[in-house]
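ZP: hey, is the iron/sulfur cluster complex queued? I don't see it on the tracker
AM: it wasn't, my bad. submitting now with these inputs:
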Amino acid sequence: MQGTPASFEDNAAQAVADAQLQRALTNVKRGFIAKRADARARLPEFDELCVEASRIKDHTLAHLDLYLEAYEQRVSESGGHVHYAPTPEDARDIVLRLCGEADARLITKAKSMVSEEIGLHAALTAAGIETVETDLGEYVIQIRKETPSHIVAPIIHLNKEQIAQDFARVHRSLPADRPLDTVQDLVAEARAVLRQKFVDADVGITGANLLVAETGSSVIVTNEGNGDLTQALPRMHIVIASIEKLVPTLEDACTILRVLARSATGQEITSYTTFATGPRRPEDPDGPESYHVILLDNGRSEMLGGDFHAMLRCIRCGACLNHCPVYGAIGGHAYGALYPGPMGAVLTPALFGLESSRDLPNASSFCGRCEEVCPMHIPLPDLMRRWRERDFARKLPPFPQRLALKLWAYAAKRPRLYHRLSGLVMPFLGRLGRGRGRFHSLPFLHAWTDTRDLPAPEGKTFRQLFARQRRGARP
Ligand code: SF4
């Protein structure tokens, strides 16, 4: 199921009714949450590291212009090139130009949400260039023509039987009766298919978890080693990353990497943590002949210093998704956006506009779990609330909803009126619900009562009960 943010309500209803998806989502709860908790418990200084990681990002963002200059300087000194791309279109044009210069026919890709953000795959395909995702999950997503459903585990919504069917459908040159029953079978087949692509690729495109201003290095973390092969074997290596990925020093990068792996997968460190600095030097045994870094803005510089500045600290660990009850109920595709869950509910309107994604910041119970587990201390509920305020100010909600909110706000700002009104409504609701204990359906509240019961009030407001108790307690 693939939708758009604008069809969120329908997407969510379908996701809740999808039994296979619901089974798959239990893996998020069982796996990621427990592993993160274990990793945190094993490192007593974890919380201090998170504070330090947030401080590093805040410092970098406060001096981003200086660190961008320093990074560009170091990349140039090591023989690479930095390209600035204000918009996704600019980034796509730069990639296509570089691929043209390299006479590229085949591209391998690894670990890049930003390339999804700029719609790179479609642009390369339109230009007649074959592009192969090399992360196993991303590869499966590619052959299914889907988008990732989780920023760390893109195929968390699938089971191995579905992937076996996809492999049987796509890998037609292999014997039809080969075994595809176990995870090992599937991994071995993907490895065999992808191995030749790594060898034949003209250009390798990777994202970056971090960019280090001190050395001009790009850093990626993977658990499959596909990032290393993607950047070391082809003639050209292109890194596509957004500007907020910068950190000042290697030591800063290491601090964030310690927090990232534990928050994402519960690992102490990911299996492959790779630093790439410029093209191959004469004494190097391998590496690309040319090295390019494309730095994407796409609205991020407008976030700097504004209401959503804190979101630029995000390191894409996915912890907020894993702990979110909404994500846990509907999965990633229901959001209809590249970045799902609480982080996506803040980021998507900033990058792609509130008009097309206004349901996402509203898709939160505001339980606060996302903020609690976020290693970068991003106040996600508060940022979602700010989008809700803008949503209301721009008159995007339907008129009845805006009217109801206006009336509520009018009464809530006038305590006497509020208490008078609630004093009238509560006895009425109490009488209506008497004997039943719960409402199974209420006008204007059907979105809630269609799927859950609403406890009936007792008939008196809290203040009335409190006042009665105090009167009774007096001597
Ligand atoms: S918002 Fe926080 S928890 Fe969510 S992905 Fe970003 S860093 Fe991780």
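AM: back. The longest strand covers residues 236-242.
ZP: great, adding it to the tracker
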